[in-house]
Amino acid sequence: MASHEPDQIREIDALVVGCGFGGIYMLYKLRRELGLTAIAIDKASGVGGTWFWNKYPGALSDSESFVYQYSFDRDLYDQTTWNTKFVRQPQILEYLNGVVDRYSLRQDVALETTMTAARFDDVAGIWTVTTDRGVTYKAKYLVNGLGLLSATNVPNFPGIENFEGRLVHTGAWPEDLDLTGKRVGVIGNGSTGGQVITAVAPIAGHLTSFQRTPQYSVPAGNRVLSNEELARQKENFEANWDQVRNSSVAMGFVESEVETFSVSDEERQRIFQRTWDEGGGFRFMFETFCDIATNPEANEEAAKFIRGKIAEIVKDPETRRKLTPTDLYARRPLCDSGLYETFNRDNVSLVHVGENPIRELTANGIVTEDGVLHELDVLICATGFDAVDGNYVKVDIRGRNNESLKEHWQDGPTSYLGMATTGFPNMFMILGPNGPFTNLPPSIETQVEWISDTIGAIEKDAMGWIEAKPDIETEWTDICADIADQTLFPKAASWIFGANIPGKKRTVMFYLGGIKEYRSVLDNEKASGYPSFLTQSDALEPA
């Protein structure tokens, strides 16, 4: 805009930033249940959040379909007709659009609108949020549903500007891209990379996987569910969701209480094999035995089983060696639709860039350290995201006393409950730092409902605004770190701790205590009248 004056100022009760699972449900709660004036904005041209952007081939939920949806409306649940174990991206996007229309929310959604700055007025108790559309929102409440995994990470390889082929990131997939017969390179082999490699290999002329770190992955076991299974899911709605909310990872299965070495070798192999055959990464880590994520020896038993499967599946000895991990099985649990089998194809090759790094990009492709040019028409970056806080620190968000959120988080992102941050009154986050590490829709519902109840309490009791007390934020951060340190996850370099972003400080970003305990903390906070928060009158009292 040429002018510094906004074209339009809109005064509302609440602004929601982001229109994925979290933003949609938040808008529903604010409008339909609390009766507040609320708008949701999103930089995308459609709703759906993660599922709008991630349209890459093979995009699939890795939570099972019967728990990868909302549970707040039983009729909506009964009318959702997903018939496969896992859900593909087009189905999820169609579902979220249907939810928006079902509750007449589209009129309150402003698309292709990006938050460029947000400032809190200490005196008025109002957030002023500027956008790139010349519209400024003034709102008492600011709820950020920016997404855990939406700030794309494109590595800055030497010569990247020289590449004359098509360069794309899986998190911003172009709909006009046809990979049929093309020479395709894929950088990255995490959850997304595995899905892309498996889906693209059958149509590509040649696919080259550039792998930095070998991964442990198990079959997804995706399949069409029988009518009996589907009917049982609907009939057991209450019991299923009660189990989810009282579990740890909220994935829809009962987590094991059996220790790895409490059974015989034969029984252990049988349990691993049964779960391998059933499919699902979280099932393999948490339904088999209770100590895989905490006991190094137990972890090695699970890792050894997966290594044995890689040895059985991958035919070429050198490819098998490169694909076989030797470290802890302690990253986000992965599952796939035939990943290791894909490397048996004649048109698929593997470059281990951990051993043979990428030297540069040229007009025609990638040159590795050994001097080999890998010719490419398309280079796909499945290189993940600046997770959790990445989208927050990109925006100039300023709270009380003009404090910058980026400065507040300079030693790593902090919060109370993953939803509130000291010095930023009436600013709530859905899936903010140090929220629960679980299947996301149940965590999203839990957080949105708590935020909604909290806003309702502020309105009812005329509190003005509330913010988390500084010592409480520190205490929650310490709790999250202490719980994480009781697991093996911090010992693996993964995006869960920010290790995928060069220069980013390694820090805990999740509460690993499980959704049951997390919900208990939330219930206690609410029932006690929010003792961990300062109110406007508290904050403005003379010292």
Automatic annotation (TrEMBL):
InterPro entries linked: FAD-binding_Monooxygenases (IPR050775), FAD/NAD-bd_sf (IPR036188), Flavin_mOase-like (IPR020946)
UniProtKB keywords: FAD, Flavoprotein, NADP, Oxidoreductase
Signal peptide: none
Molecular function (Gene Ontology), one example: oxidoreductase activity
EC number annotated for this UniProt entry: 1.14.13.-
Family annotation (SUPFAM superfamilies): FAD/NAD(P)-binding domain (SSF51905)
Pfam family, one: FMO-like
Top-level lineage group: Bacteria
Recorded family membership: Belongs to the FAD-binding monooxygenase family.
Protein name as it appears in the record: NAD(P)/FAD-dependent oxidoreductase
Originating organism: Rhodococcoides yunnanense
Organism placement in taxonomy: Bacteria, Bacillati, Actinomycetota, Actinomycetes, Mycobacteriales
